[in-house]
Specification:
With 206 residues, the chain is α/β, with parallel strands linked by helices. The chain has 8 helices and 7 strands. The termini are far apart.
Length: 206
């Protein structure tokens, strides 16, 4: 029996309800929409792709720019009993091959890679064999030349959409100007604009 997103949240994270906008963002990608989520740091961005990854058959491909962030998230997921893996520079070729095989034929639910890794022929061939259910692009401002941390390899993400067509993309970032918001969606080949943005204003209790 498939778990609902609320059952998944309770089972793995121990929460009975989502934070503001999380449920809407998750439902958007479950409905097959390309989705851009702007949530402040600490606003629970990771849950927005981790929960739908568990709600659907297959594996979520997470593109992340920082090795430390990848390792931290994979460790956290494993502690919760969620099979996850990361591929990053410095790993032995045999280790990478085993991880990719597990993603194709095993039960891995989330695979974290750097945008540079998407230039690898082995990675691209493996993606064709994986049952990818979601492409999550963390720190998505890196996609935009108008962003504050532009990384050209992020542009490769739009190209892999041709290899694994029909898979929704979720882009996540903490901050983006309206110009960057438009640019992210264009460069990730969003089929239509879909943006969720949480207010960054802090409530005053004085």
């Amino acid at each position: 029996m498939a778990f609902t997103i609320h059952q998944i949240l309770l089972k793995y994270w121990g929460f009975s309800s989502f934070r503001p906008l999380q449920e809407e963002i998750i439902q958007s990608v479950l409905d097959g929409n390309d989705t851009l989520a702007l949530l402040p740091t600490g606003g629970g961005k990771s849950l927005c792709f981790q929960v739908p990854a568990l709600a659907k058959d297959g594996i979520c491909l997470v593109v992340s720019p920082l090795i430390a962030l990848m390792k931290d998230q994979v460790d956290n997921l494993k502690r919760r009993g969620i099979p996850a893996a990361a591929i990053y520079s410095g790993m032995h070729a045999d280790e990478i091959r085993i991880i990719l095989d597990n993603c194709c034929y095993g039960n891995t639910k989330l695979l974290y890679v750097s945008p540079e890794r998407l230039k690898s022929d082995k990675m691209l061939e493996a993606l064709k064999r994986m049952k990818v259910n979601l492409i999550a692009v963390d720190e998505a401002h890196c996609v935009s030349q108008w962003g504050y941390d532009f990384r050209p390899p992020y542009l490769q993400i739009a190209e892999i959409r041709q290899i694994i067509p029909g898979i929704p993309v979720m882009a996540l970032t903490a901050t983006a100007t309206p110009k960057v918001v438009k640019d992210i969606q264009r460069r990730l080949a969003f089929k239509k604009e879909k943006v969720f943005q949480k207010s960054f204003e802090r409530k005053s209790f004085l």
